[in-house]
Amino acid sequence: MGGVSATEHAARTPHVPKQDRSRVTRQRLLAAAVACLAEHGWAGSTVSVVAERAGVSRGAAQHHFPTREDLFTAAVEYVAEERSTALRDLFPDGPADRRAVVAALVGLYTGPLFRAALHLWVAASNEDQLRARVTELEARVGRESHRIAVDLLGADESRPGVRETVQGLLDMARGLGLANLLTDDTARRERVVAQWGTIVEETLG
Amino acid sequence: MGGVSATEHAARTPHVPKQDRSRVTRQRLLAAAVACLAEHGWAGSTVSVVAERAGVSRGAAQHHFPTREDLFTAAVEYVAEERSTALRDLFPDGPADRRAVVAALVGLYTGPLFRAALHLWVAASNEDQLRARVTELEARVGRESHRIAVDLLGADESRPGVRETVQGLLDMARGLGLANLLTDDTARRERVVAQWGTIVEETLG
């Protein structure tokens, strides 16, 4: 973009269209940003560190993401969208066995994405520049998680209490993610998920 | 302590016994440490900053807490114990109305203590020095919260699923605390707590 003629463009990108290269660079930066946040936290996560990890020049990284806030909020959003898509793909026929859906929903909160999002979230609570961006991002990601949960659980939100049942379930999933931060909480979590899968099944009727 | 004779002691503390002064200093440091963590996060929380906030000399602070890790883990533990006591005092006759107990349990996770603990927790996930200490602390605080929940809910853990029901409830409380970090989530939380109070009541029978 930015004043490159078609001839120059063709000369500089003999094999891959420039837009595709740009998209690939962007995705590599986003994936590296999430991994960096998850491993090193906000204090250890800068555009330079991510550019190096992604094998991209600092200039190219800054072309895509002018500020640190741009890079890391975009990264968490990108991976959240990827995970939402993956979750829907797990249940291609829509509403499914609720105990399996509860387990899959909780699974969203126990990997590197949750860890990265948590670091961003906690950093935002003390940094004004980040706060508004992350608040808006979390609201958007939260609405999408809720929509997926309602769809896959086949929950009828016109019935009293159903909306709050699904919300509480997602809050529980978030709390289970937090419990998995310092230690491997898998064994306990599986027992809790089995029990609450049954409770949600009975409550949704 | 430390080689001060009884005469010196009496001369230096005309009004308040030295042990009491020491205890008061310690408590002021602990309260200041929790407030500091909640407001500024781990990166902004040092022994010096806390000493100044508590109106205590840096030397006195270091006498009580030789390292930063000592100070902040002790602070989170101290306030967690205070809050557990306060929670038990709310229901002096033991098992109480379960919906009220659920609301009070969730309340444990929505104030400055939870915010401080969360900062410590997240910092520990990237700092080896802190990790072992915080893991052990969280296990202890978690066991105590579970014990209080079981007692106040009058839950019979010999029945299958009851233990996991209570654990999931505390996980939900933790997730609700997280949802309250960046915005005031009170209105939504109250609806979720009302619905889940009913679910827990029905499940525990």
Automatic annotation (TrEMBL), chains A, B:
What SUPFAM superfamilies does the record tag this protein with?
Answer: Homeodomain-like
Pfam families in the record, alphabetically? TetR_N (PF00440)
Extract the DNA-binding region annotation as residue ranges: 46-65
One GO molecular-function entry: transcription cis-regulatory region binding
Q: Which InterPro entries match?
A: Homeodomain-like_sf, HTH-type_TetR-like_transc_reg, HTH_TetR
Cleavable signal peptide:
none
UniProt keyword terms in alphabetical order: DNA-binding
Q: Which domain of life, per UniProt?
A: Bacteria
Q: Region Disordered: what ranges?
A: 1-23
- Residue span, HTH tetR-type domain: 23-83
Q: What is this protein called?
A: TetR family transcriptional regulator
